[in-house]
Model the fold of this input.
Amino acid sequence: MLHGIGDLRVEDIPEPAVPDGYVLIRVAYNGICGSDLGVIHTFGVSEVAHPLTGAHGPQVLGHEFSGVVAEVGADVDGIVVGNRVVVQPNYHCGGCARCRDGLEHLCEVVAFHGLSAPGGGLSEFTAVPAANVHVLPDGVSLEQAALVEPLAVTHHAVALAQARPGQFALVIGGGPIGIGTALNLRASGVERILVSEASAPRRAIVEGLGLTVVDPLSADVRTAVHERTDGLGADMVFECAGVAVAVETALASVRARGTVVLLATYKEQVPLNTYALMFSEARVMSSLAYNRDEVATVIERMAAGSYPLDGWVERVPLEMVLEGVADAAAGRRMKVLVEVCGDE
Done:
């Protein structure tokens, strides 16, 4: 339970009620996300009720999670007790201009379960709208399914860039989002991928996934890209590091009329070299979340074996959640999955 900046506690709370149209999930695994670390250490939780969900601090965290349906509310079809599921955590109002335009994931009052809606995946039980639940196929484990949300984030970014086979992609940042981006590029048929990562342990993990990686502290990334593209530059660059110098590298490395996608969050304003944009006519866009179809695509790819977990995903038991958060924040672990109830 997050009570304020830096004030994360393990507490006993009542089991949530199950309103009509909701299901109660016994959580198996929950991933620690960069967004979680941001609210824990920098942004905190709002004391003002969210306009869509009514949620306010203190907040149960956790929006990347899988589990088993323990109870089904009234007016729910297609989901039964015992179903193995993953939750799509973004909520939308359905009535704003963006929702009416088919952009529910960009709803003007968007909320996320475990960040700005009641409950979260870092609890043994949580109640969610049935419309936000995806039933898992037999070929996807509950542990794998806890990674569907970040993989859907990165699949959406790759789709925005309109990636296609034969192109060259630069991924800046070899953390979980960078790895997810590279895996989704590969699943989309893009084989020419270069990952830039300063951390030696992370570079080793990226290489272990069969990806090419460069150290930006010892090599010029722009030069490395141009050597591999006959001087043209990358067709698309995905910025996953969240620091200003990475944005500069992205603009220097993209080809004329190429695409830069910003997936990272930034604690401070990032200066933008508009002349670099002007003289390359590059396109810069941000990427936030995903829609239901994109989540379904990730589940299908997961069942087909597109997302290896070896080397970059580590489990911690629920009683070690505070240590897991600290390790993720300090970079001592790559992707942390909290074993809430596990596969019991």
